[in-house]
Amino acid sequence: MYGLEPPFVGVLASAPAAFERIKDPPLNERTGRRQWSGDAAKWVVGWATATPVTVQAKVESIRGLTVDETVAVQGLANCCNTRKWPCGTGKPRQPF
Predict the structure, then answer these.
(1) In the chain, what are the domain boundaries?
(2) Mean pLDDT (whole number) for 70-81
(3) Are the C-beta atoms of 50 and 44 separated by less than 8 Å?
(4) From the CB of residue 12, how many other CB atoms can be counted at a distance below 10 Å?
(5) How buried is residue 4: exposed, middle or buried, by Cβ count under 10 Å (0-12/13-18/19+)?
(6) CA distances from 63 to 53, 58, 72 (A)
(7) What pLDDT, in 10s, does the model give residues 33-75?
(8) What is the rounded distance in angstroms from the CA atom of residue 61 to the CA atom of residue 96?
(9) Contact, 34 vs 26, CB < 8 A?
């Protein structure tokens, strides 16, 4: 396996102070360990990740999928019909 490197090394190599960043891996909330992954490296250097982590990144990924207005409207309608509304009814509140 000589000559192969983990996927995060190439990502971090493009960032300033790459060697300093490699020494301090982020906490993986799923495992509870500090470790690097491809997505973690992308997140640290500000690149888009395969799995969005922050609310803003999730919004941006949805925005990219809803370029077509018809798809955006249908997606919003489907989201509004979920059972995760604060009042627990599964329906949006009626306008005043």
Answers:
(1) 7-51
(2) 81
(3) no
(4) 20
(5) exposed
(6) 15, 9, 8
(7) 998 888 888 888 888 788 887 788 888 888 888 888 888 888 8
(8) 32
(9) yes
